[in-house]
Amino acid sequence: GAQALTFSKTSSSSPTFNFTVGGKSLLPSFSGQGLPAFCRDGKGNIYIGNGNTLHFYTSEGDRSGTPTVVTGNIKQLVGDSKTGKVYLLDDNKKLYDVQAESPLSNWPSVSLSSFSSIDCIAAHGGQVFVLGEQTSGTKLYVYNIESYSTPPSFQLDNGNPNAIAAPPSDISNYQYTDMF
Q1: What is the pLDDT of residue 175?
Q2: CA dist 91 to 4, 55, 76, 151, Å?
Q3: Biggest distance spanned by C-alpha atoms of the chain
């Protein structure tokens, strides 16, 4: 079974992050502003994004394959608990269907460039949820993830925007999460 994934950080202006599974250190400690991207797939395998590099580990914490370098910096990683798939959003608003044992050139991807900004994404049950702004105001968009045998092999269909309210004005320290 999958071992527990833990991470810790120092509390400084430039925090250092440490990831461990079953007592094994997964990455050399790294420093930087902001939280690194990480998630698990349906088999418990671990994905950790650091800058523009994606690292792969087995559910027991052993390195799996070689790290993959993506075009932009990794903004978010999300796992779909129903399908077991992992999706990566980079800061160029490109969404990848991560294929851990394949080179980046084989990863299906789709551009989310219609968004002027993206706050966060989530995936569940073959759908991707995008919280972002396309024209005016932040909305939650829900897309069906479609895979085809002919190009473009990866598409998002049936985007349905839903208006959401801003957090109450007395809440200033909130974060989005990809957990349901």
Answers
A1: 47
A2: 29, 17, 9, 24
A3: 50
